[in-house]
Each structure stands twice: as structure tokens, then as C-alpha cells.
Write a structure and sequence with these properties.
The chain has helices spanning 72-77, 217-222, and strands at 34-38, 65-69, 80-82, 87-93, 113-120, 123-130, 142-143, 148-151, 162-169, 172-174, 204-211, 229-230, 236-243, 250-256, 262-269, 276-283, 293-303, 306-317. The protein is mostly beta strands and 318 residues long.
Length: 318
């Protein structure tokens, strides 16, 4: 199948008279069963990123809003991806596997199993990374806001279950949190496309990963701390890099073995309001070494019981 979206301009577009109002494109409760992981990138400089509020919660060149589940178990149970507004399905793709190692993923199919909806007056929404075999709409089908499009999956260019929503107007990228402003700027904005705007948190988790020892913040920042494969007799350590955490925020770090059994867990209430801070926790290998297979690490940041950030990490013991 040809790419769902090709050669799109990334400049902001003026709002039309019939601007769509968006519902959440996923059946979850933000802060309880899901969270917003990344926003549209508002920094045009290569290698840099900032979200619509000039915060850290985006990725370089990111063109959408990522709403992520808190576990792979939730993905397996099935969580609906829903139309954010009424419209007509233009195109869809299904059949790509759910695999965080991303076999066969290219620039043309990085969106994974997906659907595009046309809302009229030049407005379109794109939904990415749905579960293989779950896409339940066809081109030409009329949908209402809240109608099921498929299920949250792990297809395309992703390592964790989430739905990626991109909004376009006349082929140009629009940030639903700041639709009336240029994408090369950030800050206050009176406009929004959301019917019920999700709460924004300046605090976030920059990254999480596995290492074989407690790394330095510099090694976490430049990526040299991360390991994706390791030996059975090596220690396993999960690190998390937090930005703009507030006193009282709780950071939980844990890891599970290939059978899903928790092998370590720690919980720390942060008291130092540093702009940037890193925490790590792990275990030495047990007698006989770690069993071979894929291990999952998690870092979760909560505030007053509400999940405000979460990152997954993966390593394979060979």
C-alpha cells in the first residue's frame, strides 16, 4: 500500500470557519490508564525539540500527539482507537505486525496500521500504530466522533503501545494544543481544537533505558549508557532521566523478566527541584545468570496519584 501521507508541508495553517472540535482519540483516562507522552515539536532546529508550551515533552521533528498506554497488558486486553471528530475515512492500512523491534519498518510505513479521516474544509486527522488485524473502518465510510477505528497496537516505528494523532489543514501540520500559532514558536495561545483539553504537565521523563551499571547523567544524555543486548551474568540496571520534576513527585523504576515476573522495583519521592535529574536502580545477576529473553523496564512519574510521565525500556539477554 502506498504511504498514507506524503510530502506534507510543516508550516502552520490558518483556521477555517468550520474548524473541527476534537475528542480524545483513545478509550482511556489520562493520568490513570494513559498519559500524553509527546507533543508536536515546535523547534525547527535539527537535533532540538520543544512542545507547544516551550517545555521538554516532544521529540525532534515529531509531528503529532502521542497518547500512550501504561502497560503492554492493556494493549493485549484491547483499547479502542476512536475517531476524534466526525468525517469520512480516506485511507487505511492493516496487516503490519506488532513488534517493538520494528521488522520491515521504513519511512513509508512508519505510521504502522493506520487510518486517515477527512473532516471537510481541508481538515484531516491521522491515527497511527494500531494493532494488527484491528482496523475496523474502510475508505469511504462515514464515522462519528467516538466511533471505533481499531485498537491501540505496536505496529510501525514504535517501541511502546500508543496512538499517534496528527492533525492537518490543507496539507499543513497543525498542533491541536496551539492551532492558531506558527509551528516555529511556542508559548501561550488562546486557541485549542480539544473539546476538553487534556491537562499539560511541564514535568516529563526525557528517557529511560537499560544499562549494566549505574550510568552518569552525561552517558544517559549522549546515549552511551543504553544497552539493548547483554550477557546472562551482567547486572541489569534501569535508569530514568526526569526534567522539571516537582517536590513530592514519585518516581517508580521496575523491571520484569521474559515471563512477566517483576525482578526489581524501587519507589522514590523526589525532594530536590532540579531542572534535570537521573535515577537508576537494578540487581546483580542471580546464580546461574539471567534467563535468556526480552526484559521490560519501566519508569513512571506520578503526582498526587496521577501518572504524568512514563517510559519503557527493552533489553535482550542472550
Amino acid at each position: 500500500m502506498r504511504p498514507l501521507i506524503a510530502a506534507l508541508c510543516v508550516s502552520a495553517a490558518p483556521l477555517a470557519a468550520e474548524t473541527p472540535v476534537l475528542d480524545l482519540p483513545i478509550d482511556c483516562v489520562p493520568g490513570r490508564t494513559c498519559y500524553i507522552e509527546d507533543y508536536v515539536d515546535h523547534d525547527p532546529a535539527p537535533g532540538r525539540q520543544r512542545d507547544f508550551a516551550c517545555g521538554i515533552n516532544s521529540r525532534d521533528g515529531h509531528k503529532g500527539t502521542d497518547i500512550a498506554l501504561l502497560s503492554f497488558d492493556a494493549m493485549e486486553a484491547g483499547v479502542e482507537v476512536r475517531a476524534a471528530a466526525p468525517g469520512t475515512v480516506l485511507r487505511m492500512r492493516d496487516g503490519m505486525v506488532d513488534d517493538y523491534t520494528m521488522p520491515g519498518v521504513t519511512d513509508d510505513n512508519a505510521c504502522g496500521n493506520a487510518a486517515i479521516i477527512d473532516h471537510g474544509d481541508g481538515w484531516q486527522t491521522l491515527y497511527c500504530h494500531m494493532k494488527q488485524g484491528s482496523v475496523s473502518v474502510t475508505p469511504g465510510q462515514e464515522v462519528k466522533a467516538g466511533d471505533r477505528l481499531g485498537l491501540v497496537g505496536l505496529s510501525g516505528q514504535t517501541t511502546h503501545p500508543h496512538v499517534h494523532l496528527t492533525v492537518y489543514h490543507d496539507g499543513a501540520l497543525v498542533d491541536p494544543f496551539r492551532p492558531d500559532a506558527s509551528l516555529d514558536s511556542c508559548g501561550d495561545s488562546a486557541g485549542t481544537l480539544w473539546a476538553d483539553p487534556p491537562t499539560y504537565y511541564r514535568t516529563g521523563l526525557v528517557t529511560a533505558g537499560f544499562s549494566t551499571s549505574v550510568p552518569s547523567l552525561a552517558a544517559v544524555g549522549d546515549g552511551s549508557a543504553r544497552v539493548t543486548e547483554t550477557a546472562p551474568d551482567s547486572p541489569l540496571v534501569v535508569y530514568a532521566h526526569a526534567g522539571h520534576a516537582e517536590p513530592g513527585d514519585v518516581l517508580t523504576i521496575r523491571a520484569r523478566d521474559p515471563q512477566g515476573t517483576e525482578i526489581f522495583r524501587t519507589e522514590e519521592t523526589l525532594t530536590d527541584p532540579q531542572v534535570s535529574q537521573m535515577r537508576a536502580f537494578g540487581r546483580k545477576a542471580p546464580p546461574g545468570g539471567w534467563p535468556a529473553g526480552a526484559y521490560l523496564g519501566e519508569a513512571t512519574l506520578t503526582r498526587d496519584g496521577t501518572v504524568i510521565a512514563h517510559r519503557n525500556a527493552h533489553v535482550t539477554v542472550e
